[in-house]
Amino acid sequence: MENTNAQNGIILIPDFSGFTEFVFNTKLYTGEYIVRQLLSILIDVNHQYFDISEIEGDAILFYRYDSKPSYKKISQMLSNMRKAFNMKIEELSEMLNTTIDLSLKFIVHYGKFSQYNIGNFRKLYGKPIVEAHQMLKNGFAEQPSYALYSHSFLKNSQKEDHNSCEEMQVSEVGAIQYFGNSLA
Asked: In which domain of life is the source organism classified (predicted)?
């Protein structure tokens, strides 16, 4: 049986680093409020470029069918998301008079996947979905705030877009781009 619904696309997963400790050390209502605000800002900054498949805990599974992804466009979006996330953390920390020790990591992957509906839910299916989730649990990142681009994404993205980017090549998965400690 052939799946005619399968297409090439980008998988993007923004995920909070420090989430488990945050949940255990923050009052339920306060923690829920903070997480809701942080997830909402990531969705807002997306400007509907990516579709949302799922939101679970501290992560969003974004996707976009795209035969020629742009490294430059995705990198700029990640930078914008991170800046908005950090600004929102500063705002919430001040408003709630608390320290919010969360940072943001991104997984960017590319491949062929499909989707199907169950009730009102749209689910993604395919090897790239599983691979992207596996990439979240990696031992390669040395800092909590980074973007990990898979070999598949780098190979399929427009080459001229990422020649000048400062990345740390990780032969097993692709490249990691670390974010500095500033809001940018």
From this structure: Bacteria
pLDDT in tens, the chain (184 residues): 555 688 999 999 999 999 999 999 999 999 999 999 999 999 999 988 999 999 998 999 999 999 899 999 999 999 999 999 999 999 999 999 999 999 999 999 999 999 998 998 889 999 999 999 988 887 766 677 889 999 999 999 876 555 445 666 666 677 888 876 444 4
Give the count of alpha carbons within 13 A of 175, CB side only: 15
φ, ψ dihedrals at 140, nearest 5°: -85, -35
What domains are defined for the chain?
7-178 (3.30.70.1230)
Predicted TM-score (pTM) above 0.85: yes
For the chain, what is the radius of gyration of the CA atoms?
17
Structure-block tokens of residue 7 = 């297409």
